[in-house]
Amino acid sequence: MQELAMSRGQTDRADFDALIGPHLDAGYRTALAILRDPDAAHDAVQESAFKAWRKLNQLQEGKPARPWFLAIVANQCRSERRRHWWSVIRMAEVETDANRPAESSAENVDIDRELAKLPREDRLALFLYFYLDLPMEEVGAVLGVSAGGAKTRVYRAARKLRPGLEMN
């Protein structure tokens, strides 16, 4: 009987790993975009994976796991930012992807500076849509709004970002 329970637990774990594993990198990048601290982002994803395990019964059958998991990550990051007063003033550099083509450092500085000026939710909307390339339905699921609401948020965030990036 214990063997059956043990093998069932291992099967459940393997199923969970197969369900969430492919989304851990996207979860980390999402957490990094919100928290802007690599260590805090790792902690948030780890805590989010634990919460996802506990809330697995809330994942609706037939619905994709990625927006469900990224919503848990985003909520965990929001909780972390509220919990730590110092995170308001602490702005770590976002890790760059070594596979991206090199751009001039002046362009990177301008974009990073202008993104840092945006509110967290605007940065998150832009990150989910442009960086993770999520469809609007999934962006909306992560943000807790409809696809139309997500489209509006991405559009407004991009409009806020544009003036700081225009050439003089």
Task: Tell me what the structure shows.
- By secondary structure, the chain is mostly helical.
- Helix content is 71%, strand content 0%.
- It folds into 2 domains: 1-93, Orthogonal Bundle (Rna Polymerase Sigma Factor, Chain: A); 101-168, Winged helix-like DNA-binding domain superfamily/Winged helix DNA-binding domain (Arc Repressor Mutant, subunit A).
Question: Nutshell version of this structure?
Answer:
By secondary structure, this protein is mainly alpha-helical.
Features:
168 residues, mainly alpha, Arc Repressor Mutant, subunit A, 8 helices, globular
Indicate the CATH topology of the largest domain: Rna Polymerase Sigma Factor, Chain: A
Number of domains: 2
Major sheet characteristics: none
Rg on CA atoms, Å: 18 Å
Distance between the termini: 73 Å
Assign the CATH superfamily of the largest domain: RNA polymerase sigma factor, region 2, helix turn helix motif
- Low-pLDDT segments: 1-9, 86-94
Layout of strands and helices, then pairs:
Layout: H1 2-20, H2 24-35, H3 38-54, H4 65-83, H5 105-117, H6 120-131, H7 136-143, H8 147-165
Helix pairs in contact: 2-3, 2-4, 3-4, 4-7, 6-8, 7-8
